[in-house]
Amino acid sequence: MGDFIKGLFGGSKPAPSPASHDDDDFEDFASVPSPTPIYSSQSSSSAPTAATFPDHETAPTPLPYTKWYRVWERASPSDFKVEAFIIPFIIVLAALHIWGRRKNRRKANVWAVTHIPVLEKEFASVGFGKTAKERLGRTSTSEEVPGAGDREFSAEGLLKEKTAQEYTTYATGRANVAHADVRIRLFKRYNPLTLALESAASFLFESVRAPKESMEITLETFDGKEKDLVPVKSKAELDAKESRFKGLQNSSYDACVWAVVHKEQMKGLRDERYDVSLTSTKDHKMLPVWASVMSESAEVTEALLTKELVECIEKAGEDAFEYLIVTDQPIDKPLK
Length: 336
Hints:
Elements: H1 2-8, H2 41-44, H3 71-74, H4 81-122, E1 125-126, H5 132-136, E2 160-161, E3 166-172, E4 177-185, H6 192-204, E5 214-221, H7 226-229, H8 235-246, E6 258-262, H9 266-272, E7 280-282, E8 291-295, H10 298-304, H11 307-316, E9 323-326
Antiparallel strand pairs: 1-3, 2-3, 3-4, 4-5, 6-8, 6-9, 7-8
């Protein structure tokens, strides 16, 4: 009764009972430890630091020991097994490539030194640079041309390296001939793997030709079109050209397809060239047994197959001579 009267007149309220430990929902928060401050070595030290005085130089802190900076401790020769095979292989390929290109260039220069003096006897200009007399610094107007044994002769400016296996040269300045293109094909010495695969394919398949070294000369005749093919720069040059051509014999000739072919090359030429496929094959008593005539007419054979030509074919030999073709037809078959 006394407690009730005290409650009506603002008496003191009874103190609440403490939370029971049986309440599981608040058990994790009942005893939370108070956080403790973290003190660093700089805050507890009374000595000045570089952050306080930026101009003050401090001693460098030694780096911690780690194997990352010491290759000999974190790697061993067994980790480079792949590189031990790849790097020597690349070095060998590079050495063979350099050797092969130099070998081909050297063979092409030897051919030029040996044969281009002969071309310079037949053409006024050979190569892509100066003539033989200009290269040697000669001012004489004689017909002398340096021979293959002339030490002063140089192949510089005579050959152009089209690829690592193909070299070309050019000749012009002869009656009835517009120009002559010379193409030299050599082995792919700079790529032995490709050369070996091509040789194996030619051995296994008859349709694949074996790699070989060859020299091909293509002469384009004027055929009565000197005035159209020879360029002029002025009216004076045009008049001089017309007066010069008046004294020349007409270079026009009857259209024909005629060839002297090595018998082993005959089938391949028929498949590759449209013009040769139009001819018929016949043996001739003047030719050696390994050569044959491919012609459209017997009259053309009698006119073109001279004694001098037969001697040249015999001197070239069975191993070097492949074909001699005179044609007015295209190599590829016309589409229309």
